[in-house]
């Protein structure tokens, strides 16, 4: 069983999607020090997920096509996250 596919179907069947977001290249989906309230599903391209440390950007992971992505620490704790989500 593909958990991403199953979760997507459940969200779709229950009509839980809030919005469809289109980003321009290098556009921000989430900036540092913001509280994450959304779960995203990447339809095309990839998201770059990074942090800034001493003025340097460090890529820590990617959000790939046909996968979910969110700042879990912020999403569950309802507190700001250092993570930056960018196309």
Written description of the protein model:
This protein has 87 residues and is α+β, with helices and mostly antiparallel strands. It has one domain (20-86): Jelly Rolls (Sandwich), CATH 2.60.120. Helices cover 20% and strands 31% of the residues. It has two helices and six strands. Strands 1-6-3-4 form a four-stranded antiparallel sheet, with no helix packed on it. Strands 2-5 form a two-stranded antiparallel sheet. Strand 3 and strand 4 form a beta hairpin. 13% of the residues are buried. The mean pLDDT is 93.
Summarize the structure.
InterPro entries: cNMP-bd_dom_sf, RmlC-like_jellyroll. The chain is of the alpha+beta class. 20% of the residues lie in helices and 31% in strands.
Q: What is the tally of helical segments?
A: 2
CATH topology: Jelly Rolls
Judging by the overall fold, what is the CATH architecture? Sandwich
Largest sheet: 4 strands, antiparallel
Describe how the helices and strands are arranged:
Layout: H1 3-13, E1 28-30, E2 40-42, E3 47-53, E4 56-63, E5 67-69, H2 72-77, E6 84-86
Antiparallel strand pairs: 1-6, 2-5, 3-4, 3-6
List descriptors:
87 residues, alpha+beta, Jelly Rolls, 4-stranded antiparallel β-sheet, two-stranded antiparallel ribbon, 20% helix, globular
């Amino acid at each position: 069983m593909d958990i991403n596919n199953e979760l997507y179907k459940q969200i779709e069947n229950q009509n839980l999607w809030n919005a469809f977001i289109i980003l321009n290249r290098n556009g921000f989906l989430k900036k540092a020090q913001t509280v994450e309230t959304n779960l995203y599903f990447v339809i095309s391209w990839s998201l770059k997920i990074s942090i800034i440390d001493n003025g340097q950007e460090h890529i820590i992971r990617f959000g790939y096509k046909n996968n979910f992505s969110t700042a879990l620490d912020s999403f569950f704790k309802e507190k700001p996250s250092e993570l930056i989500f960018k196309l």
